[in-house]
Amino acid sequence: MSSSICQACASSGRLSWAGLAATLSADVRRFLNKSPEVVVPDDWKHRLSALCTPQMMAVFLYRASHFLHARRWRRAAALLARFNLLVHKVTLPPESCIGPGLLLPHPAGVTFSGTAGRDLTLYSLAVCLPLPATVSGRRAPRLGDRVTLGAHAAVMGPVSIGDDVKIAYSLRVARDVPPSVMVVSSALRVAVRATAGPVPERS
Amino acid sequence: MRLARRNWRETRTLLRADYARLCQMLSDEEGRKPPMMFCHPSFICVFLHRVSNHFQRGGHRFTARFFWHLNLLVTGADISELADLDAGLVILSPPGTAIMGHAGRNLTVMPCAGLGGETGRREDVGGGPGVPFLGDDVVLEPHCGVLGPVRVGSRVRVPAGIGLTQDVPDDACLEGPRTRLLPRRNP
Predict the structure, then answer these.
(1) Model-level pTM?
(2) Structural domain for A57, as ranges
(3) CA A94 – CA A74 distance, rounded (Å)
(4) pLDDT tens digits for range B140-151
(5) Residue of A nearest to B187 (CA)
(6) CATH number of residue B127's parent domain
(7) A72, A91, A159: best to mutate for the B interface, most B CBs within 10 A
């Protein structure tokens, strides 16, 4: 689509109404099947009830705002994104481009500015933003497919995160990460206690 | 701590400086700023704090508390009406931000960062009893906290995920926890 300002969405056909519906359908399917232990029937009742949860409403408002932004309705897109922030306290600017299958288990406080592939998972208070803080193209983080940002994790700057990467709890990542790795902190050490028994109270 | 009274002209001057810095930070390479910047959540958050702080300085504590509460409801930022923050304040993502104490010019607060007390220490290092005092051009990265009566010098960048409880001199370079990469067996 020549009038689009999001090349990734235009090339994958997500800028048509059918593409938007397919993207939302993938989001709902991922939300319903997030736990492998719980099998949820894929019927219209469960899909509708999923759409009424705050997690899916935040994703829905983001999808709508990005759809409008990519079709050059920038003011309406900004208004919708700010309504999303007001209601759900989630900062997802319409300029951010996220592939189908976005999962926000705890939306409040999540911040994402950048681009990401399919099946992105953002846990509570996960942060992804460029340095300096703009969302313009090459300075924003670029995430691959099936990336998971743990709670309180922060991805900052013009970095590139590969496919199938998992970033653990409360980590700051400001460098490129290759595919299929898990990023963990080297700060935590587990020491063996000298004496057995209950853990003493802190004074 | 009693803050000096401030007239509307001074409050407007501070707001203009805040707005100009926010526009500068959010503009792209060609200098274009995002649409509707006057209702950008970062600006709304700073605007409500400046109004709240103005009333607090004028002795209208109830009105100041009302605007603090409105800020908390609308943007999700908890910026105390007693906080003394100089011009050029930018709060990039208001939800989850908590600020108390004093900060100099051009403070940048990234998502979920904060300044605060509640550490049990009640000394006053210039920002009020038990709260920190920051110099100019300080950057608070995501999820960091400056806690207790500590003095942080100018041009300091507090790394993400750090709880800072000690004094830091001017132009200091702080390092956060390092990361390791582990291969995933079942991605």
Answers:
(1) 0.83
(2) 1-89
(3) 8
(4) 999 999 998 999
(5) A164
(6) 2.160.10.10
(7) A91
